[in-house]
User: Which sequence fits this backbone?
């Protein structure tokens, strides 16, 4: 019996969703997660800023897609533990009829999402984004999402957990082929590449990235940082919105919390 | 500070205390330094920072001076909060009727943003009907007069108003199938209670999951517990365990996390919230 009760949620093994929760100041994490997160912070004190910047990027992207692009359907892949400013809260504040699917393969994330996020126009499903057809064909997705109308596919801080041998380009391409014209792809992705900044040399950032990648080998997922060119390739078949793939801090900043760029690349593309 | 309007004195003190601790440690001062400034013991500072004792205005003024808080607005705000922290909560009217541990709990609960609870035997207090509650209170206090039972029930009902107030907390409850099947107060009372549960699941801030019998043995078998999380990140999660004659509060992170872990396992093993209504309707039809 004991095995059954620990198989799906193991608090003894560091878990990227809970590490991220800790970096954001959340409390749904355990000593093993904090141990890795604290080591990440030792190596890269900016990590805390970067995850906050990523939340801010998500907010600006969803705001833009809902308000300017008129998108009313969102699929958030690798949605993570619920926090402040979840996709449906941002979208439905602008368009109450907006529909959102949260997808994750982590049992604890799905449990929390179902309990805290699900509502009339929002569902949370347990599925693996590495199997696009299991997401797109999921009965709850089919019930909520109209595949004849534009859909925004969100891949926020998640593809860097898919190593090259699992064919992340092929995964994104398969999702793209399932989307109707006028749909959008939005993503952010961890990187070692940064522009020159006063507090850190590019060499130091590369070194830092390598050490953080190594730390994540202790967790349930491996981390693969990618260059701008590599991130741009995920947008094959999409027309990139201005300003293209850039450091997330530079993507249509609202200057609410101006911060030095780095850590993640991000962009939004439209399927013609 | 409006989000704390409903907070009771216990957690308001927790909040003021946590701010004092932060101000002190930011300056690298020890408890002994602070104690000297207000002519008190280190233990007193420890208790103040934990929100375990009330605040004297003079002590606060001296501490804030020591902590280099000089902005008059900031000083006034902290003093006002501390004064509020000392004021009694609504439950004191009922003080003679309640064991003190329940008072403290009601206070904390009112300040929580998220209440997670597991109940193995009973319907969670926040979701009980008047009649169900009455049957429970009767069962526990056979000698009480009808009037006293009525007051106890009114107190517990007043506690429930937090679920429908402005900016209510979220209740995320896991209830064992056993609690649905045990006909507290008889069949009719139980029918009303189960119908109430179905109603409650329609509140946007209530999530109810049922842990079915076929889950078998589980890590919380035999114990019920609640975990409170507060809007202010500086306040620790608090675990509340209610026993027959007393209650236990845990707020040490490692202890709390043992319960958090068990709660995660229970939530994962329980049926998802979307199936709760169907489950209760089935129990109703078999009642």
Assistant:
């Amino acid at each position: 019996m004991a095995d059954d009760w620990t198989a799906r949620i193991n608090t003894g093994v560091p878990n990227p969703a809970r590490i991220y929760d800790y970096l954001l100041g959340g409390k749904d994490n355990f000593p093993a997660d904090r141990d890795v997160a604290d080591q990440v912070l030792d190596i890269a004190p900016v990590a805390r800023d970067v995850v906050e910047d990523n939340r801010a990027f998500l907010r600006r992207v969803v705001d833009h897609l809902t308000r300017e692009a008129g998108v009313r359907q969102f699929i958030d892949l690798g949605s993570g533990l619920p926090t402040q400013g979840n996709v449906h809260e941002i979208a439905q504040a602008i368009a109450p009829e907006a529909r959102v699917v949260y997808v994750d393969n982590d049992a604890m994330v799905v449990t929390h999402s179902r309990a805290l996020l699900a509502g009339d126009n929002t569902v949370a499903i347990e599925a693996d984004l590495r199997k696009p057809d299991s997401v797109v064909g999921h009965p709850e997705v089919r019930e909520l999402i109209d595949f004849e109308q534009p859909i925004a596919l969100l891949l926020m801080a998640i593809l860097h957990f898919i190593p090259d041998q699992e064919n992340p380009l092929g995964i994104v391409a398969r999702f793209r082929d399932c989307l109707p014209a006028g749909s959008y792809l939005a993503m952010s992705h961890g990187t070692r590449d940064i522009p020159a900044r006063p507090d850190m040399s590019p060499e130091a950032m590369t070194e830092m990235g390598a050490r953080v990648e190594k730390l994540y080998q202790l967790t349930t997922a491996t981390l693969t940082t990618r260059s701008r060119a590599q991130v741009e390739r995920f947008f094959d078949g999409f027309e990139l919105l201005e300003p293209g793939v850039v450091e997330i801090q530079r993507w249509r900043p609202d200057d609410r919390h101006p911060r030095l760029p780095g850590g993640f690349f991000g962009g939004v593309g439209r399927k013609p | 500070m409006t989000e704390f309007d409903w907070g009771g004195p216990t957690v308001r003190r927790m909040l003021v205390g946590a701010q004092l601790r932060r101000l002190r440690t930011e300056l690298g001062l020890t408890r002994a330094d602070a104690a000297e400034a207000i002519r008190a013991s280190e233990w007193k500072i420890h208790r103040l920072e934990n929100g375990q004792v009330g605040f004297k205005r003079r002590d606060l003024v001296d501490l804030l001076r020591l902590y280099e808080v000089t902005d008059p607005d900031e000083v006034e705000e902290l003093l006002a909060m501390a004064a509020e922290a000392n004021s009694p909560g609504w439950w004191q009217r009922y003080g003679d009727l309640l064991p003190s541990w329940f008072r403290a709990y009601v206070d904390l609960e009112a300040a929580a943003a998220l209440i997670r609870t597991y109940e193995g035997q009973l319907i969670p207090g926040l979701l009980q009907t008047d009649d169900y509650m009455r049957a429970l209170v009767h069962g526990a206090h056979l000698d009480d007069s009808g009037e006293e039972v009525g007051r106890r029930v009114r107190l517990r009902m007043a506690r429930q108003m937090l679920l429908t107030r402005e900016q209510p907390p979220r209740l995320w409850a896991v209830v064992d199938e056993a609690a649905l099947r045990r006909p507290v107060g008889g069949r009719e009372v139980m029918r009303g209670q189960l119908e109430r549960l179905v109603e409650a699941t329609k509140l946007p801030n209530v999530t109810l999951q049922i842990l079915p019998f076929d889950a078998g043995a589980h890590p919380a078998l035999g114990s019920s517990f609640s975990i409170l999380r507060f809007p202010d990140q500086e306040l620790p999660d608090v675990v509340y365990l209610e026993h027959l004659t007393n209650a236990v509060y845990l707020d040490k992170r490692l202890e709390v996390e043992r319960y958090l872990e068990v709660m995660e396992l229970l939530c994962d093993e329980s049926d998802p919230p979307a199936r709760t209504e169907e489950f209760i309707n089935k129990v109703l039809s078999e009642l």
About this structure: Residues 1-7, 89-98 of chain B have pLDDT under 50 and may be disordered. The first strand of chain B starts at residue 114 and ends at 119. Strands of chain B lie at 114-119, 170-176, 206-211, 225-229, 238-242, 247-250. The two ends of chain B are 47 Å apart (CA to CA).
